[in-house]
Design goal:
The protein is of the alpha/beta class. It is built from 18 helices and 27 strands. The strands form four sheets. Strands 14, 18, 19, 20, 21, 23, 24, 25, 26 and 27 form a ten-stranded mixed beta sheet that branches. Strands 10, 11, 12, 13, 15, 16, 17 and 22 form an eight-stranded mixed beta sheet that branches. Strand 12 (385-390), helix 12 (398-410) and strand 13 form a beta-alpha-beta unit. The protein is globular, with a radius of gyration of 29 Å. The termini are far apart.
């Protein structure tokens, strides 16, 4: 249909927006390099997961067409490969321009062509002493087996001169003692990469052979593998899966330069890859080293202005978080407010609070050295009932979560691994605490992001804290169902996928459709990471046709094209890509004049979230908190610095401020608000202190005067 777009091509457009940040002159130079590395990292995962999945479908002979674009698996792959190739010159040009601009700050990526004579002598000695003793070249031909090439690892491939047939040499790059960035001067800012040194001296590893051609290669392997189950046996199978994934079939071969056609064809044959899956890059194949360059120069001109999450102004130091939430509902906003001074503090307090009897939580992705795990273990060791649902199928975090599950169990925590058929992606916490008599208070937390101290400083997320009993009862129902392997079939307050989220969202959209059809102004707003749920998109089209105003902030995939006559002309789509990863989800139904309903939660508008996972969203019913979220959404819709607006042909253009319009970078605006709130609070506290001091000075004189008057 003309108002729908293929999911994979939509994602590639998102990654293109990431690449645009790598060339944005308003971003400091080293930050631009980071965006180049992020672009590549994103693309790696895309090939491992999405291309891997579609490749499996193609190999199985499936001719099933994508419901949005009508393309079968082979057509989707062709479109993906074409799109990636078109962007590659931009990737290379962006990298070179940024490195060129960094030259004035002393940065230089040296090649053998522009290395000095002394540097070439040094590099030859370095290769012979620091690299050659730890690596070896493997000769491969029809008589010798082809080696296993590890996923995303770098290798040097050389064509060897032989009388008959094709013979190549393979050299793995890197070992446990190696350093990829080899400094040549300027405090390491003048450097060469290890793979470039190995490439240059590769012939020294193949004595008796003449090297005809050489290149650096990198294989990307399929990672789309899944297992279901529960119990300890499930964890064992997940450990096997993590190991098995390393050996899955290649889906892409990257090569550093033009290479002998015969040798390249030979490698592709051994890897069982068609030539269409070979991608040439004339910049380093692995850009992850660019993050290390950040640490080599502290010049403020090269970095973003330093931002540190602020202490939430809503929380006082002299009372427990639990007692403060009992007094009023709270919303915390990351990275602008500190997770350590709020959520982690709550867990740590409850872990040692003698009145807290139980803690239940769902875990998806955790930081290394997680303080969340520490607090849960402490709570268990202090005799509290601690129940943890840890999702072992969190892609690329499986091994990490397996190890954390073992740590939790050693501390006596009751650990389960989720449901057989549904991933648990919800961000849900329930704390039970003794109150007066035989009564208990319940604190429920529902969030949009993971309980991860690292990503809480990099992703924008929201967290809701409440002691509302009805919400707690719904949360308890979620945990009971997780424990029993069932799905929640009915809720009072919370939206809970897979059965009680999408249907309720559709019902609230229907309410707005009815308002518009009856002469009012219906409104639907959403801030999400992705939109590709066909049922929801169909309802949004129906709402647009009914005259409902629809505003969407969709960071990544958006398969619904706005402003298509007769279908989506009342829909606006924005994407914000900036310093922080937009990750929060807000669902809005109705404007301020029509009994507005606002929810936050963990689900995007994707069928995998709405009907194939356990997700939780919560209503925000406090008027002040609703206004805060509404104001945040309006700010996001007003962003004219990092926002792109989707056009009716599926392209995106930067939002441009109108003449005399205020320039708004939403992420910077929210940080400024967080800083200002702390400053205002400190000023108020200082003024109260001064008032108390002045009051205490006046009191003795007042007492003396009254005594005189009495006499």
């Amino acid at each position: 249909m003309e108002y729908l777009e293929n999911r994979e091509l939509s994602w590639l457009k998102f990654n293109k927006r990431v690449l645009e940040e790598a060339s944005d002159k308003n971003n400091p130079l080293l930050e631009r390099l980071s965006f180049s590395a992020i672009y590549q990292s994103n693309l790696d995962e895309f090939f491992m997961v999405r291309v891997g999945s579609i490749t499996d479908a193609e190999k199985s002979g499936s001719n099933k067409k994508d419901s949005k674009s009508g393309m079968n698996p082979s057509q989707q792959l062709d479109a993906i490969f074409t799109s990636v190739r078109r962007l590659q010159p931009v990737v290379e040009d962006t990298y070179r321009k940024t490195m060129s601009e960094l030259a004035s700050y002393g940065f230089e990526h040296v090649s053998f062509n522009n290395a000095t004579s002394d540097e070439k002598i040094f590099l030859e000695l370095y290769f012979k002493r620091e690299i050659k003793p730890f690596i070896s070249g493997l000769v491969v031909n029809n008589s010798l087996p082809f080696p296993f090439l590890k996923n995303k690892e770098l290798y040097v491939a050389v064509q060897l001169n032989v009388k008959k047939g094709v013979s190549i040499g393979i050299i793995p790059i890197g070992h446990e003692h190696s350093e990829r960035i080899i400094p040549l001067g300027a405090g390491g800012k003048r450097f060469i990469l290890e793979e470039e040194v190995v490439l240059h001296f590769a012939h020294l590893l193949f004595k008796g052979y003449k090297v005809l051609d050489r290149a650096i290669i990198r294989v990307t392997r399929n990672a789309d593998i899944m297992v279901s189950g529960k119990g300890v046996e499930f964890r064992d199978r997940m450990e096997e899966l993590v190991d098995k994934r390393k050996r899955l079939a290649p889906v892409r071969l990257e090569i550093s330069d033009d290479f002998s056609r015969d040798a390249l064809d030979y490698i592709c044959k051994k890897l069982k890859l068609k030539n269409v899956r070979v991608f040439t890059s004339r910049i380093p194949l692995d850009l992850s080293y660019l993050f290390q360059l950040q640490e080599l120069d502290e010049n403020p001109a090269l970095h973003y202005v330093q931002r540190m999450p602020r202490k939430p102004v809503i929380l006082a130091d002299n009372r427990s978080v639990f007692s403060q939430v009992k007094q009023k509902d709270m919303i915390l906003s990351y990275p602008f407010e500190s997770i350590n001074m709020s959520f982690i503090r709550l867990l740590q307090e409850c872990a040692v609070d003698p009145k807290v009897t139980s803690i239940k939580i769902t875990l998806y992705r955790l930081a290394k050295g997680s303080k969340v795990i520490d607090a849960l273990c402490t709570a268990s060791e202090n005799g509290k009932e601690v129940f943890v649902m840890i999702e072992l199928r969190a892609r690329f975090d499986e091994a990490n979560n397996i190890e954390w599950s073992k740590v939790l169990q050693k501390s006596g925590v009751k650990v389960i691994y989720g449901m057989r058929d549904y991933k648990t992606h919800s961000k849900l916490l329930l704390i039970k605490r003794k109150s007066t008599g035989n009564n208990f208070d319940y604190l429920t937390q529902i969030g949009t992001g993971n309980y991860n101290e690292k990503t809480s400083t990099l992703y924008t997320d929201l967290m809701f804290l409440t002691t509302n009993r009805e919400i707690a009862e719904d949360a308890e129902k979620v945990f009971d169902c997780l424990s029993n392997g069932n799905v929640v079939e009915e809720t009072n307050k919370l939206l809970v996928a897979p059965l009680c989220l999408r249907n309720k969202i559709l019902a609230m959209m229907d309410e707005q459709i009815n308002i518009s059809r009856n002469g009012g102004q219906g409104y639907i707003g959403a801030k999400i990471n992705a939109l590709c749920d066909g049922t929801i998109m169909k309802k949004l089209v129906e709402a647009s046709q009914a005259g409902v105003k629809i505003e969407l902030v969709v960071r990544g995939i958006c398969c619904l094209i706005p402003n298509v006559a007769g279908y989506t002309e009342n829909i606006t789509v924005r994407s914000i890509v900036g310093r922080f990863l937009e990750h929060s989800r807000i669902y809005i139904f109705g404007d301020e004049s029509t009994g507005q309903k606002i929810y936050i939660g963990s689900a995007d508008y994707m069928s995998r979230n709405t009907i194939r996972r356990v997700e939780v969203a919560t209503p925000i019913e406090n008027d002040k908190l609703k206004k805060r979220l509404w104001d945040m959404f309006r700010t996001l819709m007003s962003d004219n610095v990092k926002a792109r607006i989707m056009q009716n042909d599926g392209t995106y253009v930067h939002a441009v401020p109108a003449e005399n319009e205020e320039i708004i970078n939403a992420q910077e605006f929210f940080y400024e608000q967080a800083y200002k709130s702390i400053d205002d609070k400190q000023k108020r506290q200082e003024q109260l202190r001064i008032n108390r001091e002045n009051s205490s000075k006046k009191k003795p004189a007042l007492k003396k005067r009254k005594t005189i008057e009495k006499i």
